[in-house]
Input
Amino acid sequence: MKKVMVIVAFIYVLLTSLANAESEFTLKGAISESETIYQDEDWRYFVDVEKGLVRISPDGSTMEVIDSGVSNSTLLYNMSKAVWKIGNFLYYQANGFIVKSTLDGSQKEKLVKVNTSSMCLYENRLYFVNYSDHSKIYYFNISNKKIFKVSNVQEVRSLAGIVKGYIYYDKQQENGLFRMKTDGTMAKRLTNVQRKDSFYNLKDSSWVYFSDFEGLKALNLNSLKIYIIRGIPAPGNFHTYNIIKTDDKWVYYIDDEIQSILGEHDAKAFEKYVMSLHKASLDGLSDVLLETKN
Output
């Protein structure tokens, strides 16, 4: 977790230092896109590592804090969003409550007391992991403002997304990606990922892209077969693949690499952090390095 926090801090510093760079899909653009909750012609809304929920003008000259109490765990795990926009309101968890806020943050309403940082919007319901009840999955009905328990499955870590009536999630003490129906039935393990800091990206109703100790992979949700898109380089350095987005041809990801620099007599002198932006073809036949930042 310490290494993950260092990487998150590094991402924040990088985003700030490149604020005046050209607006193209570079590391800055990738990081910005991964953090963005909602964007219009006037503002980009995102969760800042230090300031909480904020909005920033397109030229980066103005930043306004909407709520400093919003969790930034979505930056650590790249799973479900911490904040959702519904109509002209933002819904998020802050200081132990699900909060409804106007876009400028001038009016806020505490809707229900919860302990969570992982939420998914589906059919006018906010599904979340309830840390106060053994990390089970609950949902908050936005229409009637009532809360319901979905399942008695315990120790859920985070929600990856909800597609066609299925909730995709991972667990705290068990390997793999799981799913269950939105009514809590048919809970099933889909993969056996061995590393706990995996990143998932639900592209559509047929595919989920994720990373584990072997590299980037694609899981077909119909056949439940797994395909390797991009393997981890030869042993020696520590790599974490953070999926930013997918389109019809590519998976865009950031490779957070921790390089062990050898000193005298092959003793490790220090660790160097290298961040690089790649795009890998969906069929796994091509990987393109877009940018590197030391």
In short: The domain at 2-293 is CATH 2.130.10.10 (Methylamine Dehydrogenase; Chain H). Residues 2-17 form the longest helix (16 residues).
